[in-house]
Amino acid sequence: MPIGGFVIHVWPAKKPQVLKELAREERLSVYAHDDKGHVVVVIETETSEEMAHLVRSLSLIEGIFTINLAYLYGEDEVEKIESGAYKPQTVFGKAFR
């Protein structure tokens, strides 16, 4: 299960609405936010592809202008890839063949 920490930058005037939208996503936890529009979140998904898809969908929320990855932990997914049990098709926009 990949776990990613992200800093989401939002327009300060839109932050209340963005926080409401983020709260609807059960795979995401908001850990901090400030008046400048920085929102720190952790996302937990079953696969890195699912995480990439979620990040792309979050980027469409009105008021969000960037989503930056701070860290990514995916040890169990790496083990699945190494054993051949899982073959990712894409990870954050990069296709694997």
Characterization of this structure:
- This protein is α+β, with helices and mostly antiparallel strands.
- The protein has one domain: Lrp/AsnC effector binding domain/regulation of amino acid metabolism (RAM) domain (Alpha-Beta Plaits).
- It is 30% helix and 36% strand.
- A four-stranded antiparallel sheet has the order 2-3-1-4, covered by helices on one side.
- It is elongated, with a radius of gyration of 14 Å.
- The mean pLDDT is 88.
> What is the correct CATH architecture?
2-Layer Sandwich
Tally of DSSP helical segments:
3
How confident is the prediction overall: mean pLDDT? 88
Characterize the main sheet: 4 strands, antiparallel
| Overall structural domain count | 1
Residues in β-strands, percent? 35-45%
Indicate the percent of residues in helices: 25-40%
CATH class: Alpha Beta
Radius of gyration: 14 Å
Oligomer: single chain
Q: Helices and strands, in N-to-C order?
A: EHEEHEHEE
* DSSP, total strands: 6
Ranges with pLDDT <50 over ≥5 residues? none
Q: For the largest beta sheet, what order do the strands appear in spatially?
A: 2-3-1-4
Distance between the termini: 22 Å
Overall SS class: alpha+beta
| Named CATH topology | Alpha-Beta Plaits
CATH superfamily: Lrp/AsnC effector binding domain/regulation of amino acid metabolism (RAM) domain
* Inertia-based shape: elongated
Features:
4-stranded antiparallel sheet, alpha+beta, two-stranded antiparallel ribbon, 97 residues, Alpha-Beta Plaits, single chain
